[in-house]
Specification:
Structural class: mainly alpha
Order of helices and strands: HHHHHHHHHHHHHHHHHH
CATH class: Mainly Alpha
Number of domains: 1
Largest sheet: none
Radius of gyration: 21 Å
CATH topology: Growth Hormone, Chain: A
Helix content: over 70%
Shape: globular
Distance between the termini: 35 Å
Strand content: under 5%
CATH superfamily: MFS general substrate transporter like domains
C-alpha cells in the first residue's frame, strides 16, 4: 500500500495538539485557584472534570471510530475541544471552566483512540514503532512548550508587558485581572483551525486489526471478570494518578512552601517536568533493550519515590524544584511498560482490553482531588504524600506481573510461556 506521509504528519500534529491542550493544567491551577477563590479541593475538580471525560470516553470513542471512521470522529473531537475552550473564553468563571475542561477532555480522548490505527496504515506497519516514538516526541514537545506560552502571555499582558499584534488582540478578549484565560482563546483558535484541516484532508481507508477493535459490550464485561484485567486497569489508574497528582500540584507547592511565582518558576517546573519525561522516553527505549521491563519499572518507581521525598521535605527551593522535574524523568517509562505488560498478559480481546486500560486514565481525575482534599485539612505537603499510595501499587505491579511474552533484550529472545 502506498504510504501517505501527509496523514502521518497530520497525526504528529494531532499528538502535538492533544498534549498542548492537556498538560497545561498544572501550570494554570494555582492562578485559577487564587482568582476564583477556590479551596484546594475545589481546584482539584478542574483536573477531575478533564480526566473523567478522558476515562469515560475511551471505550465509546473506540465504538464511534469503528462505526463512523476516523475523519468524522476527529472532526467531532476538535469541535468538542473548540466549544469547550470558546465557552470558557467568553465566560471565564469557575463553573464554566469545569464544563469547558470536560468538553476538551472528551475531544482529546476521542482523538487518542482514532489516530493510532491511522498512523499504522498511513506510515506502514514496518515503520509503526518508529512513527509512534516520533509521535511521542511531538506530544512531549507540546507539553514543554505550552507552559512557556502561558508564561509569555501572562507576562506580556501584565502591568509590565508591552503586547502587540496577536497578543494585544488576545488581551482585548479577556478581563484585565484574568490574563491567563488568554491561553484558552489560543486553544479555541487551534481547535478551530484543526476542524478545517481535518475536513480538507483525504483519509486512507483504515482496516482495524483484531487487537485494535474495541469489540462489543459483552466482551468488555467478560474481560472485567478477569483479575489480571482489573489489576492492570488499576496499574494505568495509578500511573496517570501519580503523573497528574504531582504535575497539577508542583506549582502550588513551590508557591506555598518556597514562595516561587506560579506564572514564572512554577510554570518552568511544570514545563521541565514534561520535558524530562520526553527525554526519559527516548532513553527508556534503549534501556528496555538491555533490561527486563519489570526491573526497569521497579527501578524507575523507586527513583520517583526518592525524588518525591526530596521535593517535599527539602528546605532548599532549588533542590525542591529540580527534584520535582526529576520525577518527570522517573515517570517517563511507566505508562508504556504498564500498558505493554498488560497487553502481553492476556491472550485475546486486545482491542477491548486496550479500551479498558485507557479508561484507567481517569486516575488523573481522582488522585489530584484526593491530594487537594487532604491539603485542605492537613496541608499540601501531607496531601501530596498520597502519591506514595499510587507509586506503591506500581511497585507491587513490577513484582506481580507475569506476562505471557516478556520484552526482548539483546541478552535474551522472547519466549512464550
Amino acid at each position: 500500500m502506498k504510504r501517505n506521509y501527509y496523514i502521518v504528519f497530520l497525526v504528529f500534529i494531532v499528538f502535538f495538539v492533544i498534549s498542548f491542550l492537556t498538560n497545561i493544567l498544572g501550570a494554570i491551577l494555582p492562578v485559577a485557584k487564587d482568582d476564583f477563590h477556590a479551596s484546594n479541593t475545589m481546584a482539584a475538580f478542574l483536573p477531575l472534570f478533564f480526566f473523567v471525560a478522558y476515562g469515560v470516553m475511551s471505550i465509546p470513542a473506540g465504538l464511534m471510530t469503528e462505526r463512523f471512521k476516523e475523519k468524522k470522529v476527529m472532526m467531532a473531537a476538535f469541535i468538542s475541544a473548540f466549544a469547550g475552550a470558546l465557552i470558557f473564553g467568553l465566560a471565564p468563571k469557575f463553573g464554566v471552566m469545569l464544563g469547558s475542561l470536560f468538553f476538551i477532555g472528551a475531544g482529546m480522548a476521542i482523538l487518542q483512540v482514532a489516530i493510532n490505527p491511522l498512523l499504522r496504515v498511513s506510515g506502514g506497519e514496518e515503520h509503526f514503532a518508529f512513527n509512534s516514538v516520533m509521535a511521542q516526541l511531538f506530544f512531549g514537545g507540546a507539553s514543554f512548550l505550552s507552559p512557556m506560552l502561558y508564561s509569555y502571555l501572562v507576562s506580556e499582558l501584565g502591568p509590565q508587558g508591552s503586547p502587540g499584534g496577536i497578543v494585544k488582540f488576545l488581551g482585548g478578549l479577556v478581563p484585565a485581572n484574568l490574563t491567563w484565560v488568554s491561553i484558552y482563546w489560543v486553544f479555541a483558535m487551534i481547535a478551530f483551525v484543526m476542524i478545517f484541516v481535518v475536513a480538507a484532508s483525504k483519509f486512507p481507508k483504515v482496516e482495524l486489526k483484531e487487537d485494535e477493535k474495541t469489540g462489543n459490550w459483552d466482551t468488555i464485561v467478560h474481560l472485567l471478570k478477569n483479575k489480571t484485567v482489573i489489576i492492570f486497569f488499576f496499574g494505568i489508574f495509578a500511573y496517570v494518578g501519580t503523573e497528574q497528582g504531582v504535575a497539577n500540584w508542583i506549582s502550588e507547592f513551590l508557591k506555598t512552601y518556597h514562595g516561587l511565582r506560579p506564572e514564572v518558576e512554577g510554570a518552568q517546573a511544570v514545563q521541565w517536568y514534561w520535558g524530562l519525561m520526553t527525554i526519559g522516553c527516548i532513553l527508556g527505549l534503549g534501556l528496555l533493550k538491555l533490561v527486563d521491563s519489570k526491573i526497569v519499572l521497579r527501578v524507575f518507581v523507586m527513583g520517583a519515590m526518592a525524588c518525591l521525598a526530596t521535593a517535599l521535605f527539602t528546605a532548599d527551593p532549588k533542590i525542591s524544584f529540580y527534584a520535582f522535574i526529576a520525577m518527570g524523568f522517573c515517570a517517563s517509562v511507566m505508562w508504556s511498560i504498564v500498558f505493554s505488560l498488560g497487553m502481553n498478559s492476556i491472550a485475546e480481546h486486545h482491542g477491548s482490553f486496550s479500551g479498558i486500560l485507557c479508561s484507567g486514565i481517569m486516575g488523573g481525575a481522582v488522585t489530584p482531588l484526593i491530594v487537594g482534599s487532604l491539603a485542605d485539612h492537613f496541608g499540601l505537603r501531607t496531601g501530596m504524600l498520597f502519591n506514595y499510595v499510587t507509586l506503591s501499587f506500581l511497585l507491587f505491579l513490577s513484582f506481580w506481573a507475569k506476562p505471557l511474552v516478556a520484552n526482548q533484550t539483546i541478552f535474551n529472545k522472547v519466549e512464550k510461556k
